[in-house]
Amino acid sequence: MQDRHINRFKYFQEQCYTTEKYVIPFIKEVTPISNITSVLEIGCGEGGNMKPFLDMGCKVTGVDLSKGKVENAHKFFKGHKHISNLNLICEDIYNIDNLGKFDLIVTRDVLEHIHNQKKFLDYVKKFLKNSGKFFVGFPPWLSPFGGHQQMCESKVLSKLPYFHLLPTPLYQSILKIFGEKEDKIKGLLETKTTGITIERFEKIVKKTGYKIDKKILYLINPNYEIKFGLKPKEQLKPFSLLPFIRDFFTTTIYYLISLDL
Description:
Elements: H1 3-6, H2 8-28, E1 38-42, H3 51-55, E2 59-64, H4 67-76, E3 86-90, E4 102-108, H5 117-123, E5 128-138, H6 168-177, H7 182-194, H8 198-207, E6 210-220, H9 224-228, E7 233-234, H10 237-240, H11 245-248, E8 252-259
Parallel strand pairs: 1-2, 1-4, 2-3, 4-5
Antiparallel strand pairs: 5-8, 6-7, 6-8
């Protein structure tokens, strides 16, 4: 599993595939996307999620903290027929206030890494048009791999579900025993503090002045199709309606939210 985090172009291609095949159709069920659509991705990394939008001729802006990932994005998009529609920014989103407003904001597998998600959702409203939509996709913290342990070097730990839910001292000890590097342990422990549940996200949505337009809970993550050859499967209805319990059986959730005007 961890190979994709080393081979960044492979990861880029995986993001392209899933966004084109699943994320964009999900969004288009609520709002149209065309070459006049302006898109902002926050936490864009190398830009795999942005490419399908750029392929459609959308005007796309990507923001990421990592200089290395943004540099990779420039390499991966070199020669793209719509390169003039692409704007890549290496910066903390909180240090930016002059981007303008967008038809669509995207964060995919990013929210669970952000400290103070309420502050984040409240802040980025300034970049969303009144008629705009905000796509948010993330694995619930209580899900089998909600701790991102698939990034572990250990083949055992990278395939071990739920152990991220152990008390922090025990979790940290297991990571050390299996030989994980200090920087990897630090990152995994940080995710333990930022992981977000379905219930907490939906409370934050209401508190920050958004409404939920559409959501899908997945038992089998759409991204697993290109990674493992597994067909995506939506969460079973009985589980999807059970607060707290559903978090344990949902590998990812897609939301489309908008300003509650």
